[in-house]
Amino acid sequence: MYEVLDNSRLKEIQETIAELEKKIDSFIATEDDRSKHDVTKLQANASLEEICNAVWDCGSDKSSSPNGFSFLFLKRNWEYFKDDVDIFVTQFMESGSFPKRTNSEFITLIPKVKNPLLIKDYRPILLIGMQYKIVAKLLENRLASVIDKFVNPVQSTFITDHQILDGPLIVSEVIDWYKKRNKKLMIFRVDFEKAFDSVSWTYLDYVLSQMGFGDSWR
């Protein structure tokens, strides 16, 4: 059964829709402001406590730096090095760049197959300085606190509490659901070889700048 709308009723509905549109626009603007505020916080200088947390989040028994020192050494002697580390991180946050050779690294090739013949059969392992790792971990920790503002909740990898296996499990459940109901289903699987090397860095830099990320993030 359909309701016949007179002009007054139609006008009332139109006004209601217009009011809802205003509220939605206001909500979106507020969310944008919140996101920009969150990004602004990411640019702030780090406290010594935050730097300390980043250091302790780095594995003590990971590969040593090119100079031979590991994070275990740094942690055990933190009182002697904390001021220097604080100065280094502060300079990076203010300038958005590292001193020359800070991010220099040694590359070791690890075979991925039993009898490697091609370059792609090797996996490069990098030995990189602790300073670089500390800054990377600090930025990672900060980004984790706001990542939900920028990444769709269905993203199943590289997000805290999300697992890469979530995707295959969901696909398996969907296939099973269609099979039980004898329904047709088409699944389209796409995989990009060397996807990281195929990224348009110019476009990525543009997107980050539009989101409000400063030089220290780009």
TrEMBL record:
Keyword Nucleotidyltransferase belongs to the record: yes
A Pfam family hit: RVT_1
Location of the Reverse transcriptase domain: 111-214
Keywords associated with the record: Nucleotidyltransferase, RNA-directed DNA polymerase, Transferase
Recorded superkingdom: Eukaryota
Cell division found in the keyword field: no
InterPro entries listed in its UniProt record: RT_dom
MF GO annotations: RNA-directed DNA polymerase activity
PANTHER family: REVERSE TRANSCRIPTASE DOMAIN-CONTAINING PROTEIN-RELATED
Name of the protein in question: RNA-directed DNA polymerase, eukaryota, reverse transcriptase zinc-binding domain protein
